[in-house]
Amino acid sequence: MKFVPPAACVLLGVLLSGAPAAAQSRGELLYTTHCVACHTTEVHWRDRRLATDWDSLQAQVSRWQAIGFLAWSDDDIAAVTKYLNESYYGFKQPGGKPLVLTPAAKP
Question: Could you tell me the pTM of the whole model?
Fold first, then answer.
């Protein structure tokens, strides 16, 4: 029987342990880092939400990042707006088609 070095066993174990998790978008990373502590998914589905279209969603992202003193760039605001729109709202984006979303099932 041939000797297999321990490092080779560890490497093989890592390779066989499964695929890495899918990378998060910048918008999702910013949202989960700075916003999710206060904004659970219910805030996006409530009846009296303030975001009613793409522009008002982007305005709310801009507003709340300013309140939180986050100093996000316009690209960061756009990335979070896009993430929220794709995850929860499905508004027609400027120059784009509306998204068709299926609400997440409640546990």
Answer: 0.66
C-alpha 46/C-alpha 89 separation (Å) is: 11
> CA angle 53-46-34, nearest 5°?
75
Distances in Å between the alpha carbon of 12 and those of 17, 18, 19? Answer: 9, 11, 13
What does the alpha-carbon distance between residue 10 and residue 106 come to, in Å, rounded to a whole number? 40
Residue with tokens 């929220």: 84
Nearest to 34 by CA among 3, 74, 85, 68: 68
Those residues whose C-beta lies under 8 Å from the C-beta of residue 100, and which sit 6 or more positions away, are 90
Question: How does pLDDT run across 80-92, given as a tens digit for each residue?
Answer: 999 999 988 899 8
Q: Which two tokens stand for residue 6?
A: 């321990």
Q: What is the CATH number of domain 22-89?
A: 1.10.760
